[in-house]
Amino acid sequence: MARDSDYGAFMERFLLQPSSSPHGLPLNTLTFAVKDIFDMEGYVTGFGNPDWARTHTAATSTAPAVLAVSRAGATCVGKTVMDEMAYSINGENKHYGTPRNPCAPDRIPGGSSSGSAVAVGAGLVDFSLGTDTGGSVRVPSSYCGIYGFRPSHGAISTSGVTPMAQSFDTVGWFAKDPVILNSVGHVLLQLPEVVPVKPSQIIIAEDCFQLSSIPYDVVTKSLFKAVEKFYGGYLVKHATLGDYVKDKVPSLKHFVNKEITDQDYNIPSLAALSSAMRLLQRYEFKNNHGEWITKVKPDLGPGISERVLDALRTTGESIDVCHSVKSELHTALTALLGDFGVLALPTVPGPPPKLQTDGYALEIFRARPFSLLSIAGVSGFCQVSIPLGMYNNLPMSISLLAKHGSDGFLLNIVENISVTLKEEVAAMLKS
């Protein structure tokens, strides 16, 4: 079991100092932790499961993403707990324990990068590396009240990272501070120093906010005020994203069903998007790991074992349609946002569920965030989750999303508006 003194965040602690003198390097003096999905030379990559660790040998090289931040002057202090085989957004691991959510100890931390998020949220490190396939950086960052960045798909090398589903896998990172978030991003994305560009529009996805339990007015009015201060309030627009996606992504009709349409908490086109994402994810997961699972028959926790079984039953049927959906959504959102537009939406529909929530209830709850998470996942766009403080003693957040390849632009916006945005939210909640 993970030790309690470190919030149960770590699999193992060690010190990996920068190979050269860190003085003058961009991440000098910063510490970081790494999800147990990244290869580190001399250590077994455990992938969240003891049977995986038992049947794999120590890595002979270190993942480029880890090397990049280390070479930029940061010190690695250990590997963090994750959900088994990265196949959950809950953050509970039956083998290694559930890392303790630092801002809501009776709630799940979110997964699958649970330990990485908790390590940052608890102040044990300055930043951490995770991965985000279906939402594994965005969800725990929201649940733990910190910043989480999912980069544009393919923008950061996933070499040396155990794959989950390659069409969606990204290397993401967490920070408590928007300046550190940006600094880490500049290193990982190898961004040049350029003059920040002003956004051309900030579109509030009104229907997406209707899915959220956080007060719509508090979040959207606070966002308007923060944007007004830095860029001008005239940039803020409103849209019904579900209708736009329905019109512009014709292949989605293959994934719309009556059950989805009748659910009052759902947006049918986005629920269909989620179905397409999860089908392709299952198919790729099976291709990556089906043979190992069949041979080893690993001991998997509740929820995960059922999802893995579903994945093993997946056939190639409709996979080509999933790829069409990806392509169409990418084109549609590029047209909507243009080069410097930003989409605002909730990261997740509500606060983290309680620990030991009934498995069936948790599965129903788990299905809901994917309508929101699949937008960046399927399009390949970059997304950042920004903490907004606490509402009813539970963390809340907002997400901003920008077109593929505009990661540096999005990071600069976050650094500009975050503090004001948080202050505006606090003021509105007091009034």
TrEMBL record:
> What family does this chain come from, according to its entry?
Belongs to the amidase family.
One GO MF term attached to the UniProt entry: hydrolase activity, acting on carbon-nitrogen (but not peptide) bonds, in linear amides
Instruction: From the UniProt record, list the coiled-coil ranges.
Output: none
Under InterPro entries, the record lists: Amidase_CS, Amidase_dom, AS_sf
What name is this protein filed under? Amidase 1
Q: What is the lineage of its organism?
A: Eukaryota, Viridiplantae, Streptophyta, Embryophyta, Tracheophyta
Q: Which Gene3D superfamilies match?
A: Amidase signature (AS) domain (3.90.1300.10)
Q: Which domain of life is it from?
A: Eukaryota
A Pfam family cross-referenced in the UniProt record is: Amidase
In its UniProt entry, the species of origin is given as: Quillaja saponaria (Soap bark tree)
Ranges for domain Amidase come to: 24-177
